[in-house]
Amino acid sequence: MRAVLESGDDRQEGDSRMTRLVRIARYIETHADEPLTLAGLAAIVGLSPSRLQRQFKEAFGVSPKAYQDAVRMRCFKQSLKDGDKVTDAIFASGFGSVSRVYGEAHRNIGMPPRAYRAGGEGEVIVYACRPTSLGLMAMAATDKGVCFVQFGDSESSLVSGLKAEFPKAEVRASPARNAPELDAWVEALDEHISQGAPRPDLPLDMRGTAFQMKVWQFLLSIREGDVLSYSELAAKIDKPKAVRAVASACGKNRIGVLIPCHRVLRGDGGLGGYRWGLERKRALLNAERKRQRADAGS
Q1: pTM metric for this prediction
Q2: What CA–CA distance (Å, rounded) separates 201 from 203?
Q3: Is 261 noted as a catalytic residue in this protein?
Q4: Architecture field, domain 210-297
């Protein structure tokens, strides 16, 4: 019996250790474009730097620093694949120079397979479609929150877009009776878009590179009726040279309206681009300015 108890304690200790290490891995993934230190990471989980270094390498096969470099390299390659310029991809990924990028590329660091699930592998994503004043809207959610809000002309094109964003997930259409929470979220967002109700504060499941996440998080802080330029947004997130990368991150936002990328304009005040068309962007901004003026006058 004593041996069994000790075995159970060992498993529990191992589980808690892995929980801490996964927490650090996730932190690195979402802050990969920032300068991270071993001491700072260790403080997050209450370990000494040397102990974190040893345990992390035992669990994932690489050090925290090598893991961060691998995440940066993955983001860099994805940015290039998405058509971003090399210099924009460098800044967006957190590399400080061209030589640093190619130095890391030659090291050829691999990503531990258990550290990242691409394309929604193993997940179930439920979606619903609804007509709005901006056209047909599709909203989809995981068990963590809304992962997709997009507009289009047909349900088939919207569903195709959803599957393209999450190619390895199981995508299900769900009538209201099977997903009452999702239906309530769709209705709340429709009321915001079509009737001017307050924008619903819904749980979001945002997925992107560390740089994209930083851009999207800042977008959530922009108040209704306010706008700023792509260059101003780049400066706000301490990446003043990454204006094109900021614009690219806005363009890759897959959760329309709830993440208000429509509030970012060109430096000359022009609308710039919008994934779902400039007419929709103009309609959203006009409605928000109208509500802002009404609130100021009341």
Answers
A1: 0.63
A2: 7
A3: yes
A4: Orthogonal Bundle (1.10)
